[in-house]
Amino acid sequence: FNLINKDLAFAPLIEHPTVLALMDAELGRDAVLLDVSVNHVGAHTDSGGWHVDSPISQMPAPFPDFTLAVQTAWMLDDFTADNGATLVARESHRTLHGPPKGPVALDNEVVLEGPAGSLAIWLSQTWHRHGANHTDTPRCGVIVQYGRAWVKPFVDLRTPLTAAQAAQLSPRLRYLMGCNANAPVRG
């Protein structure tokens, strides 16, 4: 978790112009960064269970009929059906309720496959899970989640920042990280 505070090399992923344009359109220009973390599916790992992302996962059904957060996954390795690529349930974001429990197969599931360097994007209310990794090597990605301005981040992204680090960040990244506000956080 909180990779941006561990290495500023993650900043270009967070501030990718195409991604920010999508976030502006879906969440508003005042969207904030909720988390930057690594997703690692180890070798010979079973599939994960279906879930929705926070903040939706913290709410009772029916879910809001608008998007609170958007998840992006930068593929550090090739994502394949064999190595645990993310699966999403097509149209599940429209159900306004949570997914079934466990890693059950769904008729509408789609494997998000792509070569290393690719990007997958889904709404926080979309049912998703990692697939089973049947290979001898792990599969890794960087998860960057954005939310509406009033959604609390997972941690206070500002706390570990030094003044020298903050000075290296663009004004937009400082805003995304909450450097311009003192809103409460989950942490």
How are the SSEs placed, and which strands pair?
Layout: H1 11-14, H2 17-27, E1 32-41, E2 69-75, E3 86-89, E4 109-111, E5 119-123, E6 128-130, E7 139-147, H3 163-168, H4 171-176
Antiparallel strand pairs: 1-7, 2-5, 2-7, 3-4, 3-6
Number of helices: 4
The helix-strand sequence is HHEEEEEEEHH
- Share of β-strand residues: 15-25%
Distance, first to last CA? 12 Å
Question: Which percent range fits the helix content?
Answer: 10-25%
**Overall pLDDT:** 92
**Largest sheet composition:** 4 strands, antiparallel
Low-pLDDT windows of residues = none
Shape: globular
Rg on CA atoms, Å: 17 Å
Based on DSSP secondary structure assignment, what is the total number of beta strands?
A: 7
Structural class: alpha+beta
Question: What would you call the quaternary organization?
Answer: single chain
Side-by-side strand order of the widest sheet: 1-7-2-5
Describe the structure.
The chain is α+β, with helices and mostly antiparallel strands and 187 residues long. It has four helices and seven strands, in the order ααβββββββαα. The protein has helices spanning 11-14, 17-27, 163-168, 171-176; strands at residues 32-41, 69-75, 86-89, 109-111, 119-123, 128-130, 139-147. The strands form two sheets. It has a four-stranded antiparallel sheet, with helices on one face. The model has no long low-confidence stretch (mean pLDDT 92).
Give keywords.
single chain; 187 residues; alpha+beta; 4 helices; 7 strands; 14% helix
What is the compact description of this entry?
By secondary structure, this protein is of the alpha+beta class.
